[in-house]
């Protein structure tokens, strides 16, 4: 992999964006002998400024020095910057390669890479996989959208395996990046604003995870997802396919039969009762199957895999049980930033639900939620600046809809509406930027408000 070494002495690496991935790339680039310059159109956070200064890396904020950036040999663009930003077009017009942090970092490690992508479930599956491999005694790092950036870990740690959570934006910037094991949890319309509202562009982005794979590599995917199976029929891939399914037996692959999870590869098979999974919901059975398939490929002991599946606690802000008050369960699913994630949440509710929903709508189609809302939701609390789409989607099927503008009010309203045995679910189906910094901030405010009831 380390084909870059030796070529980069005095090469000029310009980095757009001074956040986690930008600063990580800067630290790795400096270590590998590049001349590095970090440029951010906004402000760079204090902790990142300090890091850059400690490593004696030049940076600028609230400005892009275009002339200087256009002399770069290589540009790393942070995933938050759109592909067609004017400066990015200028750089490409000059023939300068523009890559993602994931692409850059992968050039400087010989570790085995497990890449996980999908519209939903990728954080849980990433953490799940990392948890099993760690329990199995492997030296394993976890990066991508979770924790420290991949580049920084490559610069500062030494591990044999990386589990990477990859967004479509990160995959858009790869050239040679090739995970030995790729996982695709599912594909549903999300971020279409970034893909010119063309769903096929978004699907193609996700499948870039397989683009450099060979027959020696593996692709683990949801065989129940029609979008994935259709794409695979029309666009053959080279890697070995390992499906997982709740609906049919797939061999080799993972499936459920008679309340047992069965993972069947080459000549080994693991079985365990579905009731042993700590995480509830059909989607979590799928996340568990994907993670266990990776573990089995890496020869983790069956016992370790079973134990890990029954001990894994899940992810903060993803169907996280907060408190029971007056026999009402409060659940934080702030990480549900699209309709499909909320679909899973509502599907896993077995009590009458007061649903807190709303935020920045990415052109959501709420129609697919109607049957679940009819069946499970007795009241809706809107939490957003513009609640019109929610009011018009659900006005006819829920008797009580309340509008609120702050988390504190939303939780108070939900508390008033809830009766013994009900659940209060925060599952916004939207981004959080109208009232909160991000979905973590939204989730923490929810938990705080619940504790203050």
Automatic annotation (TrEMBL):
Q: Where can this protein be found? A: Cytoplasm
Q: Could you name the domain of life of the organism this protein comes from? A: Bacteria
An example of a Pfam family matching this protein is: Mur_ligase_C
In this chain, ATP is annotated as bound at 118-124
- Family of this protein: Belongs to the MurCDEF family.
Q: What does this protein do?
A: Cell wall formation. Catalyzes the addition of glutamate to the nucleotide precursor UDP-N-acetylmuramoyl-L-alanine (UMA).
Top-down, what is the taxonomic lineage of the species of origin?
Bacteria, Pseudomonadati, Bacteroidota, Flavobacteriia, Flavobacteriales
Chief subcellular location: cytoplasm
According to UniProt, the reaction catalysed is: UDP-N-acetyl-alpha-D-muramoyl-L-alanine + D-glutamate + ATP = UDP-N-acetyl-alpha-D-muramoyl-L-alanyl-D-glutamate + ADP + phosphate + H(+)
Q: Which gene encodes it?
A: murD
What is the name attached to this protein's record?
A: UDP-N-acetylmuramoylalanine--D-glutamate ligase
Name one cellular component (GO) term: cytoplasm
Query: Domain Mur ligase C-terminal: where?
Result: 317-430
């Amino acid at each position: 992999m380390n084909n870059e070494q030796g070529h980069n002495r005095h090469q000029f690496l310009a980095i757009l964006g001074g956040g986690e991935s930008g600063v990580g790339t800067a630290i790795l680039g400096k270590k590998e002998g590049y001349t590095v310059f970090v440029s951010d159109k906004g402000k760079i956070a204090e902790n990142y400024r300090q890091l850059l200064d400690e490593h004696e890396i030049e940076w600028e904020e609230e400005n892009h020095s275009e002339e200087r950036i256009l002399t770069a040999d290589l540009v790393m663009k942070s995933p938050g910057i759109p592909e067609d930003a004017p400066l990015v077009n200028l750089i490409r017009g000059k023939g300068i390669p523009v890559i993602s942090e994931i692409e850059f970092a992968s050039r400087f490690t010989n570790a085995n890479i497990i890449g996980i992508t999908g519209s939903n479930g990728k954080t849980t599956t990433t953490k799940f996989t990392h948890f099993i491999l760690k329990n199995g005694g492997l030296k394993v790092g976890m990066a991508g959208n979770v924790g420290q950036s991949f580049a920084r870990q490559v610069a500062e740690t030494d591990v044999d395996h990386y589990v990477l959570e990859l967004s479509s934006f990160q995959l858009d910037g790869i050239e040679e990046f090739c995970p030995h094991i790729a996982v695709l949890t599912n594909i549903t319309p999300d971020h279409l604003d970034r893909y010119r509202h063309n769903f096929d562009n978004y699907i193609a982005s996700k499948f870039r995870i397989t683009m450099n794979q060979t027959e020696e590599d593996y692709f683990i995917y949801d065989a129940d997802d029609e979008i994935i199976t259709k794409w695979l029929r029309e666009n053959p891939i080279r890697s070995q396919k390992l499906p997982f399914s709740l609906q049919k037996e797939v061999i080799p692959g993972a499936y459920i039969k008679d309340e047992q999870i069965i993972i069947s590869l080459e000549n080994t098979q693991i079985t365990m009762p579905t009731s042993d999974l700590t995480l509830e919901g059909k989607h979590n059975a799928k996340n568990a199957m994907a993670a266990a398939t990776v573990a089995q490929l890496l020869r983790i002991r069956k016992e370790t895999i079973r134990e890990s599946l029954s001990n894994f606690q899940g992810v903060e802000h993803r169907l996280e049980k907060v408190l029971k008050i007056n026999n009402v369960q409060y659940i934080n699913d702030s990480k549900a930033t699209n309709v499909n994630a909320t679909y899973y949440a509502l599907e896993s509710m077995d009590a009458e639900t007061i649903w807190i929903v709303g935020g920045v709508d990415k052109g959501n189609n709420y129609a697919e939620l109607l049957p679940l809302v009819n069946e499970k939701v007795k009241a809706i609390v809107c939490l957003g600046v513009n609640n019109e789409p929610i009011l018009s989607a659900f006005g006819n099927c829920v008797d009580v809809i309340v509008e609120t503008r702050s988390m504190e009010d939303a939780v108070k309203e939900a508390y008033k509406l809830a009766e013994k045995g009900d659940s209060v679910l925060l599952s916004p189906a939207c981004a959080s930027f109208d009232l909160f910094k991000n979905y973590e901030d939204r989730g923490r405010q929810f938990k705080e408000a619940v504790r203050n009831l």
